[in-house]
Write a structure and sequence with these properties.
Chain lengths: 429, 469
């Protein structure tokens, strides 16, 4: 394929207009000894059909067995409306909406997305998106240090282990000290707030359990309360974070209409209280008017951002995950209030599966506490060998050495009763 | 246009969900009592967003010469590639050899294109790549037991550069641009010392100029033990022509959503892979994807800066970039650079007859004109708004900061000559209007779905959700 439309005649006459002889005269600034003498060692061009054949061949090296994997990335149904909208070139091939008059589509969609995230979380403001769940949490950690002026944060060990790794990376660069908070019975245990700017917990936590947010808020009365969520569908069933006076809500929004895609792109969500509006990283779409007084939308409060404030910006983020936020908006608008029912169905399937599994000798529920759609079971090695063609869950031993033979199991509407019964049959046969 | 919540009618959603007869394990006091999401029938959801899309402008609608953003055509085959069902797998699945193969091969291609020794595809965007690169710089000096506090950044740099540097607690130290548009070598030599960790440069720079002193620049930094970081936003002009590693770059990022044609999505997702030289390889983010005995696998390094993404970066964007590189191949990549540079110079030559061109010399992929010759107080902003009426997306405006009233124009290689000529004609017409009918410009745009937006109003009393008053 070749996407450069200039013909040989075009090239020749354009060179003449410029006043040079040869195309290489346009690269005169490059020291001559640096100019490549031989072509790049990359295969020759392919036609569309050759390319598709090759890609399909590589794709077949992946396998898609019956899977109960979750832990930060979820297999949900994507309504047909989502791709119909996100594949429209007017949305997908536009840039960040710097010019509002010809980007009202993107801007209104972001404004509505921000509104729906605030509805789900109960927070006052949400931005236009961050890279993913882990990096939006890292930004929240940095934001909290800036607000409180203390370079230490508390991080629950019931936070997704990959997210903890990302926090460590950012903390090292930003010279923030992380103090881990132990787990008791799968939930975040006691902590001392002195010297810290914030406590970071996940809800539902990495084990799928619902944390005691009321208790945590009480203990954290003099510091900021930051939450992370990886399965944001749970929000449609659980009380919003505002009811627990959470200060900064972050999440992975992939569950809202975005495919698993081997973990990316995700959708970083960040929402906070009005008081911290001017500290929030990233783009914000706001309502305004045009010169005729008609309602319109524009990016706003840009003085927080890198292109204006440079080294004093609230973050270095520029490109975000706009199209993933659009997918989430279409997803939420498509379900409407029925999203609550979808969340309930996910919860019901997980309850059903955990009940069925724990009736089997050799399988135990590790934390007997309320969970959303993920739970931890301990599975005897003999049983596991019967499940070789099923991905039953994420093995936890690597991240929690004391959780030997334990698996994080996830159910969604894509793992219906029939699939669950099939697993139970395979084990009990 | 009405908002979703203004169109909402309870009970009208098409997406009903049947529940099972199973009792929940979550007590009532933990459950929410209401969920006030807007509710519309499916047909109205589709119409809402379809109509919104009609007030949006993408590369699919027309030329988009937004400087430094490389808004080239995004081939549709990339979308087919990204939607092959077998690639849509869970990131922790063990049955991932196809996905790993794509990432590994893409890393190899990026190494060949840039001359760097290893790439990590974890960074999700250019600025994410920048902060990753600066963290690598930091880790390098930490390992050597050196405490360096500053990073040199030219005054023509993207705003993300100083912001990325300060995220890693370095102080940005600005160097001036010289009269020819490149870095002022004397200023650089004066500022470079053993307390400076390195330089962050954009080359070709934001004026579209390939710095002819690039070897002296990197040599100066290296002679004090510093590292050279390249902001690879402008790589389009170098494909198959020159490799950054050959001019002394130690760390760089690429923007796959610019150079490698993945669509920008109205703000993202992008992808900002980071490449390094051999000695810096151990510092790349964990995990790396490598090949051992012909098998792809994950590798962890003790010296790594650590993980910087929930998983392995924006995989579906990587797939699109892979698809693009394979589609156009080796000669196609060079063709991209040649035509991008040809198109930019053609427009520069034609437009300088009507607009002020501060740096009047051969450019690479882009060039910067300004509004200093405009009559009747007409500004760059007026010109940008009026261009919309002619069916063009405006250039990047008021950047780089070193040119007052800048218009940074990057036509890209995928525009036809006819489109280039039409843009030049539009700019000529606008210049004439500025002389004869300036109100047309100050009131522009006149043909867009909405008139000129009041951005001051938006910031004065921010209304960021439909809840706020």
């Amino acid at each position: 394929m070749d996407y450069t439309p200039n013909t040989d005649e075009d090239r020749e006459s354009m060179l003449k207009e410029i006043g040079v002889q040869d195309i290489m005269d346009l690269f005169k600034n490059i020291p001559e000894n640096l100019i490549l003498k031989s072509p790049l060692r990359i295969p020759d061009q392919l036609s569309e059909f050759e390319l598709i054949r090759e890609l399909e061949k590589i794709s077949k090296k992946n396998k898609k067995p019956l899977s109960f994997l979750g832990g930060g990335n979820y297999n949900h149904h994507i309504p047909s409306t989502v791709n119909a909208i996100t594949s429209r070139g007017e949305f997908s091939t536009s840039y960040t909406p710097y010019q509002p008059e010809i980007n009202q589509g993107t801007l209104q969609a972001i404004f509505e997305y921000q509104s729906m995230i605030c509805e789900l979380t109960g927070m006052d403001v949400a931005n236009a998106s961050m890279y993913d769940g882990a990096t939006s949490l890292a930004e929240a950690m940095i934001l909290a240090s800036r607000i409180k002026g203390k370079k230490q944060v508390l991080v629950s060990q019931a936070l997704n282990p990959f997210y903890r790794e990302v926090l460590n990376t950012y903390a090292r660069a930003s010279e923030i000290k992380i103090v881990e908070v132990d787990i008791a019975g799968g939930l975040t245990s006691d902590f001392e707030t002195e010297g810290s700017s914030a406590i970071i917990i996940q809800n539902p936590n990495f084990f799928g359990l619902i944390e005691n947010l009321e208790e945590i808020r009480k203990k954290a009365e003099d510091i900021l309360f930051i939450t992370s969520t990886t399965e944001s569908l749970g929000w449609a069933m659980l009380k919003p974070f505002s009811e627990y006076d959470v200060d900064i809500v972050t999440a992975e929004g992939q569950s809202f209409g975005n495919p698993m895609n081997f973990g990316g792109p995700g959708l970083g969500i960040i929402a906070t209280k009005q008081a911290y509006l001017r500290q929030i990283p990233g783009r914000l779409a706001g309502e305004t008017v045009d010169i005729h007084g008609n309602r319109g939308f524009a990016l706003t409060l840009c003085t927080r951002e890198q292109h204006i404030r440079r080294e004093k910006a609230t973050s270095n983020i520029c490109t975000n995950e706009g199209l993933c936020a659009l997918a989430a908006a279409v997803y939420l608008a498509t379900y409407g209030r029925n999203l609550g029912k979808l969340a309930q169905l996910n919860n019901q399937l997980a309850v059903y599966f955990s009940d069925k599994l724990t009736q089997i000798k050799g399988i135990d529920l590790v934390f007997d506490k309320p969970f959303f759609n993920e739970f931890v079971v301990k599975i005897h090695k003999d049983i596991l060998s019967k499940l070789s063609d099923i991905e039953i869950g994420i093995s936890l031993e690597k991240y929690y050495p004391n959780l030997e033979d334990c698996y994080l199991v996830c159910c969604t509407e894509m793992t219906p009763k029939e699939d669950i019964n099939r697993v139970i049959d395979e084990i009990t046969q | 246009m009405k908002l979703l919540n203004e169109k909402s009618k309870q009970g009208s959603s098409s997406f009903n969900v049947s529940l099972l007869d199973i009792q929940t394990n979550i007590s009532d006091n933990l459950q929410r009592t209401d969920l006030n999401l807007p509710e519309l029938p499916e047909v109205e959801v589709v119409r809402h967003y379809t109509n919104l899309s009609k007030s949006n402008f993408g590369v699919d609608n027309g030329p988009y010469p937004l400087g430094s953003c490389t808004m080239k055509y995004n081939p549709k085959i990339n979308e087919i590639a990204a939607n092959i069902p077998e690639f849509n797998i869970h990131p922790l699945s063990q049955h991932n050899k196809g996905a790993l193969e794509i990432i590994y091969r893409l890393q190899e291609y990026l190494c060949e294109i840039t001359g760097m020794h290893a790439f990590s595809t974890q960074p999700a965007a250019g600025a994410h790549g920048e902060s990753t690169g600066i963290m690598i710089m930091r880790a390098w000096f930490e390992k050597r037991g050196e405490k360096r506090t500053k990073v040199i950044i030219p005054d023509s740099a993207h705003g993300t550069n100083p912001a990325s540097v300060s995220l890693s607690r370095f102080q940005p130290l600005q160097v001036k641009s010289g009269l020819s548009g490149g870095i002022d070598l004397d200023d650089l030599r004066q500022k470079m010392n053993d307390n400076v960790a390195g330089i962050m440069i954009t080359n070709p720079n934001t004026l579209g100029i390939f710095d002819e002193n690039i070897l002296e620049i990197t040599e100066t930094v290296h002679s004090h033990g510093g590292l050279c970081y390249l902001d690879g936003a402008n790589t389009n002009a170098m494909l198959g022509i020159v490799k950054p590693a050959d001019f002394g770059i130690d760390i760089m990022h690429l923007n796959l959503h610019k150079t490698f044609s993945t669509p920008h999505g109205g703000g993202g997702p992008g992808s900002g892979p980071v490449g390094v030289t051999e000695v810096l390889k151990p510092f790349l983010p964990n995990p790396r994807i490598i090949k051992k005995n012909d098998e792809t696998e994950f590798e962890q390094s003790e010296e790594s800066i650590g993980r910087i993404h929930s998983f392995y970066g924006n995989f579906s964007v990587l797939l699109r970039a892979y698809s693009y590189i394979k589609a156009i191949g080796s000669s196609g990549l060079r063709n991209v650079a040649e035509n991008a540079v040809l198109n930019a110079n053609y427009m520069r030559e034609k437009l300088k007859r009507h607009y002020h061109l501060q740096y009047d010399r051969i450019c690479q992929h882009e060039f910067v004109i300004d509004d200093s010759l405009m009559p009747n107080g007409i500004t760059t902003n007026d010109i940008a708004k009026r261009l919309m009426d002619f069916g063009f997306h405006p250039p990047t405006i008021y950047f780089p900061l070193i040119v007052k009233g800048a218009m940074m124009i990057e036509p890209t290689e995928t525009e036809t000559r006819e489109n280039l000529d039409a843009f030049i004609e539009a700019m000529k017409a606008i210049k004439e209007e500025a002389e004869n009918d300036p109100e047309k410009l100050t009131n522009a745009p006149l043909k867009t779905p909405i008139g000129r937006i009041d951005i001051v109003h938006a910031a004065r009393k921010p209304k960021l959700t439909w809840h706020s008053t």
